[in-house]
Amino acid sequence: MRRLLTTVRSGVRLDDMKSVPISDLRQRVADVIDDVQASDEPAVILQRSRKAAYLVSADRYERDQAELAALRRALFLSEVREAEAEYQAGQASAFDDVEALIDELKG
């Protein structure tokens, strides 16, 4: 059986990323999916030698989404605690209107 996935260097990270030309994906979709599931690593789908999409296993996608949600929640809670501490210390700003608040948030 011919090896469907090849290794390329990502421009953003120096990780090895498996790549699949879209023509190979069309012909051997089941094999490509099996390879992605077995390795639990994403593969980049190339169309005209450019990144067109990423293919990940369902388990990997669900783990990544759960991790992202947990990180967002932790950041939100950290910001709430910081705002509460500023308020309790009397360092909270008062605004007469929403526009002034938005201007300060924009920096």
Oligomeric description of these chains = single chain
**Helix-and-strand structural type:** alpha+beta
- Secondary-structure element order, as H and E? EEHHEEHH
Under the CATH scheme, the architecture of the largest domain is 3-Layer(aba) Sandwich
CATH topology of the largest domain: YefM-like fold
Total number of helical segments?
4
How would you characterize the overall build of this protein?
With 107 residues, this protein is an alpha+beta fold. It has two domains: 6-56, YefM-like fold; 59-106. It is built from four helices and four strands. It has a four-stranded mixed β-sheet with strand order 1-2-3-4. The longest helix has 31 residues, at 58-88.
